[in-house]
Amino acid sequence: MKKRIKLGLIGFGTVGSGVVDLIRKNNLVIEKRLGASLEIKTIADKDLIRPRNVSTAEATITDSVSDILNDPEISIVIELVGGLLPAKNFIIDAMEKKKHVVTANKALLATYGNEIFEKADEEKVNIGFEASVGGAIPVIKTIKESLAANNIVSVFGIMNGTCNYILTRMTDENLPFEEVLKEAQRLGFAEADPTYDIDGIDTAHKLAITLALSYGKRVRLEDIYREGISNLDRQDVEFASQLGYRIKLLAIAIQRGEEIEARIHPTMIPFNHLLSSVNGNYNAFHFEGDHSGSVLLHGQGAGMKPTASAVVSDIIDIARDMEKKVWRRVPLRAFKKDQIQDIKLLSMDDVRTNYYFRFSAFDRPGVLSKISGILGSHSISIASVIQKGRKDEGAVPVVMTTHESRERDVREALEEIDKLDIVLDKTVLIRIEGGQVQ
After folding, report:
1. Fewest C-beta in 10 Å: which of 146, 202, 235, 342?
2. Are residues 270 and 244 in contact, defined by beta-carbon separation less than 8 angstroms?
3. Range of the domain at 208
4. Domain identity same for 159 and 283
5. Neighbouring-strand partners of residue 77
6. What whole-number distance in Å separates Cα of residue 348 and Cα of residue 336?
7. Do 59 and 197 share a domain, yes or no?
């Protein structure tokens, strides 16, 4: 008689339905790879009325999570309710019942991951969270296993499909941000309240988890520098194209000696950069290992099927360990527990990169010399200048890119420039990565 590994599913929304459907449709191939079958014994959800387009004939449906937590036959609990609470309590309670856990909850792990991982160690249970970063893209496994022998020199990621879709449409079709956002909402790529996506919060959750695994550090979400895309103007997208760049919302982590540079913001990258051609609602993660060199992972970072695929892969991993009677072969955070330390983040003031500026200035003699003089006094070297001819007596855009400069110097220079009577609006700043176009 074939062995059955019994599962409890908490949360029967979009991803939960995808998990049920995947296990039902692909259980035969899963059995061949695992040597046992997966059985979703109980599904808990607060909404028992809403119809789902998946078969649940073999499962018990309940509105009580306790039916799962108190069932000794259920060995793996899948948490897919999302949010911080009560999801955190469900996971902690499951661990205290000696049940393994699989979750896709990036917000929870980015906020309470340190506590949850400590609890998993204490109770000697496993937790799988591949789906929390990059959906079906095997980001977690790549860091924990494939790149285990490497120092991770840098991570550059397009980690939010909604933002990437919006920026792609703005670039390729010269559309304004507000119009593309409404279209993304209509197509289901963006939520009715898109704040988490467009303000970079979703990306910050994923970067926090990626940082912890890449560098063996405890990370505080609020310490990561973050800017969103809601203030991007399409004229900056146009200027970027003229200069040979595309704009992406990038999550960036770079090892700087004992410190880690971690930041999220709209970024100009050259057309020939590996991430430049990642468009639409796709995600991509570019790792640079000191021995592996460049590694690019690309695919669907969200959605019912891709996320369900990652969730079930975690279930299979845990089930394999159970079959071998191994508690946990690979450390949860990629490093042994006694090697985990608090992260030391490089101050944003000390970040050095290239910059794009767009000044709104009167077209008068001496304007460029005044602006460039202030930049020069702050050790900022200009790489290129674009000045549009005036059509009337108003302001014209003056665009400059710089050689590598320090963030603190840039901020101080722009504060001084924005006070000039020849400048009408606050200067637009976008950082440039991946090499300077000559």
Report:
1. 342
2. yes
3. 139-300
4. yes
5. 8, 101
6. 29
7. no
Q: In this structure, are residues 70 and 61 in contact, taking their beta carbons and an 8 Å threshold? A: no
CA dihedral 94, 95, 97, 99 (to 10 degrees): 80
Q: How far is CA 322 from the centre of its chain?
A: 30
- Residues 78-106 have a mean pLDDT of 97
Residues 88 and 12 in one domain: yes
Amino acid symbol at 258? E
| pTM (predicted TM-score) | 0.94
How far apart are the two ends of the chain, measured CA to CA in Å?
Answer: 68
305 as an active site residue: the answer is no
Q: Residue 322 contacts by C-beta under 8 Å, 6 or more apart in sequence?
A: 5, 75, 100
Helices (H) and strands (E) in the chain, counts: 13, 19
Per-residue burial over 133-160, b if 16 or more Cβ lie within 10 Å, else e, is: bbbbbbbbbbbbeebeebebbbbbbbbb
DSSP code string of 167-195? HHHHHHH---HHHHHHHHHHHTSS-SS-H
Q: Could you report the per-residue pLDDT of 193-234, keeping only the tens digit for each?
A: 999 999 999 999 999 999 999 999 999 999 999 999 999 999
pLDDT surpassing 60 at residue 372: yes
- pLDDT digit string, tens, across residues 30-62: 999 999 999 999 999 999 888 888 888 789 999
Q: Say which of 144, 206, 217, 248 is annotated catalytic.
A: 206
Would residue 343 count as lying in a domain?
Answer: no
Q: Answer yes or no: do 51 and 63 share one domain.
A: yes
Q: Which sign, positive or negative, has the C-alpha torsion 201, 311, 183, 233?
A: positive
Strands (E), 207-362: 217-218, 225-226, 245-256, 259-270, 282-289, 293-300, 341-342, 352-362
Give the residue among 98, 88, 104, 133 at the shortest CA–CA distance from 16.
Answer: 104
